[in-house]
């Protein structure tokens, strides 16, 4: 039973990866084979940008909180 679930999960991931590669190939007007061979580099770059993305999101959240606090303070006056 576990093997069947594992095979299903792997197959689903492969289908999702293939569909995403097709989308990228269409968007960038590139051959699908080029996109598929480029996917590992893209994935590595995406994983490497996660800390910067989280830092940016945190900074945006702090700025939004300050704006919200300022608008509440202005409303109280």
Task: Write a structural description.
This protein has one domain (2-76). The protein has helices at residues 2-28, 32-48, 50-76. With 77 residues, it is mainly alpha-helical. The longest helix has 27 residues, at 2-28. The protein starts with a helix and ends with a helix. The relative contact order is 0.05. The chain is built from three helices and no strands. Helix 1 (2-28) crosses helix 2.
Notable characteristics:
single chain, 77 residues, mainly alpha, 3 helices, 92% helix
Structural class: mainly alpha
- Give the tally of β-strands: 0
- Strand fraction equals under 5%
Number of structural units classed as domains: 1
Mean pLDDT: 89
Give the SSE string: HHH
Report, as a whole number of angstroms, the end-to-end distance: 65 Å
Number of alpha- plus pi-helical segments: 3
Shape: elongated
What's the alpha carbon Rg, rounded to whole Å?
A: 21 Å
Runs in which pLDDT lies below 50 for 5 or more consecutive residues are none
* Residue share in helix: over 70%
Q: What would you call the quaternary organization?
A: single chain
Report the biggest beta sheet as strand number plus sense, adding barrel if it closes: none
Helices and strands in order, then pairings?
Elements (H helix, E strand, L loop, with lengths): L1 H27 L3 H17 L1 H27 L1
Helix pairs in contact: 1-2
Short description:
The chain has 77 residues and is an all-alpha fold. The protein has helices at residues 2-28, 32-48, 50-76. The protein contains 3 helices and no strands.
